[in-house]
Design goal:
single chain, 280 residues, alpha+beta, Arc Repressor Mutant, subunit A, Chorismate lyase, 6-stranded antiparallel beta sheet, two-stranded antiparallel sheet, 12 strands, 31% strand, elongated
């Protein structure tokens, strides 16, 4: 903390209403949220410590921890072990659940080209799971690429990608540190992704994932599983991507149209085999 006292950080002298039906932690959370969202506490600035918040608002540490925990899950705060709690930057918006782009292209178009740390890049026999996604017999040679992807020097995504070795053998030795995989497949391998299917779900970080993504074990992550296909329907890529829940947000645009003669609106879905505008 700076030399500014905890009491000085709350110039409006807010207080917890002990007679309100709202739980104390909810009241504290909304007080802290207002200072963050109004820009009174700047991104990266340290907020008062747990003991200081207890003293300022005359509440228990359990109440303070619950409020800070929920604001952390919402992405407004980031807690650093041994240092304290800080105002987080805005979440990184992505279009990966609705557009046929890769993470590199999506971020580059938004002015934040990512940098990748390649953790694995090798040819391996496919596991039954990977083989099923790629339509291959188990044990068929595939290229495995595991990358930790950074945006503005912060780890955001841990992704494992698998591609049939026979379709792009030179990829085993290609430097993908600052390059789009999809761009490489198109320009160097003449492999054009035509469609894909992605699923999204919430999961918790295990110890390995938490260490790489710099979050706590059990922290919320957003899992994207994706299969991409060539124009003839051949599966080209399967990937398993874990996005930090506190730093990621997915934008989805839905379109409706009126079916002729039926007088009702329906979600646009030109290909009934997979959802509208699903990315690959």
């Amino acid at each position: 903390m700076s030399s500014v006292s905890a009491f000085e950080m709350f110039p409006r002298n807010e207080a917890i209403d002990k007679g309100s039906p709202l739980p104390y932690y909810v009241q504290l959370k909304e007080i802290l949220r207002a200072y963050i969202e109004n820009g009174e506490w700047q991104i990266g600035s340290q907020i008062p410590s747990e003991p200081d918040l207890c003293e300022v608002f005359n509440i228990s540490r359990t109440v303070v921890r619950q409020a800070l925990r929920e604001l952390t899950y919402e992405g407004l705060l980031v807690r650093e072990k041994g240092r304290g709690t800080f105002v987080a930057g805005p979440k990184i918006s992505e279009r990966l659940v609705q557009e046929l782009t890769g993470f590199y292209q999506d971020m580059a178009e938004r002015g934040n080209p990512p940098v990748s740390k390649v953790l694995k890049q090798q040819m391996i026999p496919s596991s039954p799971k990977v083989a099923s996604f790629l339509g291959l017999p188990p044990g068929t040679s595939v290229i495995e690429i595991e990358r930790l992807r950074f945006v503005q020097n912060e780890p955001i995504v841990l992704v494992s990608t698998y591609l049939p070795y026979d379709l792009c053998p030179q990829l085993v030795v290609t430097d993908l540190t600052r390059r789009s995989l999809y761009e490489y497949l198109e320009t160097e391998c003449s492999r054009f992704i035509a469609r894909g299917r992605r699923t999204i779900e919430a999961v918790q970080a295990n110890e390995y994932e938490a260490r790489l993504l710099q979050v706590q074990t059990g922290a919320p992550l957003i899992l994207l599983d994706s299969v991409s296909y060539l124009e003839d329907g051949t599966p080209l890529e399967y990937y398993h991507a874990l996005h930090r829940g506190d730093r990621s947000r997915f934008d989805v645009e839905l379109v409706r149209f009126r079916e002729p003669g039926e007088g009702r609106l329906t979600l646009l879905n030109k290909n009934k085999d997979f959802p509208p505008k699903i990315a690959g």
